[in-house]
Amino acid sequence: MNNEELNLSIIVPVYNTEKYLEKCLNSILKNIPQKTEIIVVNDGSPDNSENIIKKFEEKYSDIIKYFKKQNGGLADTKNFGISKAKGKYITFVDSDDYVDANMHKEMLELAMEKNADVVYCDIEKVYENGDTYVSYCTNFKRNTDYFKLIDTPLMAASCNKLIKKELYDNFSFPVGLINEDISVTPILLAKAKSIYKIDKPFYKYFQRSNSIQNSTFDEKRFAIFNAAKICFNQAKDLPEELQIQIKGAIYTHQILAYLIYPISELSEEEQLKLIPIFCKKYNELGEDAYQNIYVKEYVKNLHVKHLLVLMKKEKIKAIVRWLKFYKLIRPR
Asked: 137-146: which pairs have CB atoms within 8 A and are 24 or more residues apart?
């Protein structure tokens, strides 16, 4: 296979996931398409992950390419994987998640048939207690394939998308920043000339209680503001309508939702500590963060306009009272 032109590169970043890694790799390998490589990148993991990877590498030496690097974080690991990728299309699988056996085969077949720039699927969240919940990654109220995709909560995820490698040219994930996908994915998708969807929840997103997204909400989660600013800056060369759509999607799904839901579940003491920081960072985004047409639509649908007024004025105790009321009338 080394001398063949590859169709797909599946990049698997690994760090401290020995408990889940075998299931992850087995799921990818179960019905893997021809002319596909699996690039496994060990980000200096101190656990037993390397031994697990090496067993797979020995058994599937024609498919698996193993690399070990000094710890640099998820964004750095993704950039490394892209630099090694030889496939026409690139996708990612987090090493604590797993996929449906038909995922990459069906998505690649569609991509090759249509010569698509992007093919994506839905995501099924799998909880530790066995519960599952499908996150549908299309907003059918929107009028373009692009906006239907980005105006959703998981629009930035790179794991449920096959993207032409050439779209990554001159782009890299911001090293040292969590929520790194938000900085890059909306711009990559905006560059795509054709986007197709398979309406199946192929990707299985395992909800670990100790993962970044499911850990206790704290100030570290506000790193999303930095990711958003990077994205907005990179979007400046795009048509104005796309910039408005990108900002609207990030303001609502990626930023405001972080306040309305997770912070509402904290104690009043924690809310009083975190809300001023959140308000300050949101206000630093400028007046557009309030006047964006999709923010206005969002607050109208959720009846949260009063909350935005309080945020703008930084009426912190009033926000705490509002969140208590909101939690009572609209349980999560």
From this structure: 137/197, 138/197, 138/199, 145/194, 145/195, 145/196, 145/197, 146/189, 146/190, 146/192, 146/195, 146/242, 146/245
In a domain, 280, yes or no: yes
Domain count, the chain: 2
Using one digit for the tens of pLDDT, what is the confidence trace for 211-239?
555 557 888 899 999 999 999 999 999 99
As given in the structure block, the two tokens for residue 141 are: 């109220």
Using only C-alpha atoms, what is the Rg of the chain?
A: 20
Same domain, 156 and 285: no
Residue 165 lies in a domain: yes
Name, in order, each residue with C-beta under 8 angstroms of 153's C-beta and a sequence gap of 6 or more: 135, 253, 254, 257
Does one domain contain both 308 and 180? Answer: no
323 and 244 in a common domain:
yes
pLDDT (tens digit per residue) in 285-314: 999 999 999 999 999 988 888 999 999 999
pTM, two decimals, is: 0.93
- Residues 109 and 31 both lie in one domain: yes
The confidence score (pLDDT) of residue 331 equals 46
> Does residue 55 carry a pLDDT above 50?
yes
Give domain status of residue 1, yes or no: no
Tens digits of residue pLDDT in 154-192: 999 999 999 999 999 988 999 988 889 999 999 999 999
Could you tell me the residue range of the domain that residue 60 belongs to?
Answer: 6-207
Give the mean model confidence (pLDDT) for residues 64-69.
98
